[in-house]
Specification:
The two termini are 46 Å apart. By secondary structure, the chain is an all-alpha fold. The radius of gyration is 24 Å and the shape is globular. Helix content is 74%, strand content 0%. The chain has a single domain, classed as MetI-like fold, CATH 1.10.3720. It contains twelve helices and no strands. Keywords: Cell membrane, Membrane, Phosphate transport, Transmembrane, Transmembrane helix, Transport. It is a multi-pass membrane protein. One of its GO terms (cellular component) is plasma membrane. Pfam families: BPD_transp_1.
Length: 309
Amino acid sequence: MTTLTTPAKRRLGDRIFTGLSRTAAYSILAILAGVVIFLSIEGWPGITASPDEVKSGESFLAWVAPLVFGTLWSSALALVMAVPLAIGVALFITYYTPRSLGVFFGYLVDLLAAVPSVVFGLWGIAVLAGLLVSPYEWLYQNLSFLPFFAGPPSATGRTILTAAIVLAVMILPIITAIAREVFKQTPVLLEEAALALGATRWEMIRTVVLPHARSGIIGGSMLGLGRALGETMAVAMVLSASGVVTFNLISSTNPSTIPANIALQFKENSGLTINVLIASGLVLFVITLAVNIAARAIVNRRKDFAEGR
């Protein structure tokens, strides 16, 4: 004899929470779709505008290409500087300090994420730029054979490298926080097994912790890259931009970035030039979306590989 079982009745609180969660998820998709529609509608006239109709006097692709280069170049430089430092700080807090001291250092790093962008910009232009003038001159005198330091060095220190250092400081707490959490997820049994086999603490970290946390580190790095790509005020305040394509890191002739260019140019322009700026925002949106998709693909691939071992 079979008995029919009725599904358990869900509690009111569960139904409310499920509905709110679903509404929030759909709202994010709706907002994202609205942003895409707005950027596409308002930006299309700028993309198709002829050079003599806009302030720059160039076609859209010729005008936006240096901005795309500057955005990617400054963000890549920031990522190269921030990721090793963030991993080192996370490892130090997690494995090399007493628990109470590690919590204190963790709070200090997290506080950096709460500092407004304009404060970083003021620090960059008032303090950091002046401090870097002498190092830039030294790099020019000793390493000018490299295209990165071909010079002539900037007399103010407001270069793409200075802006990248500011961006690196800004994305440091994001990557560090994610790396710390990922390191804490490493199975304790694996760590103890490595130490029991005679591994030093660094060997345990190198052979157990870092491989286990690789996907999380990549995900945190891509999240920091997304922040660097979209940063506006700090870069606009620090960078002395000329709208060129160059790999020179210490010269006063520097590429600009899309967000900084929009912030500096939007208020003083009108007509189709506004549509061109909005179209550059659409390009930035596509770049950021591509970075997020690539990060998700990398993380998922690493996850599948780890589960298949």
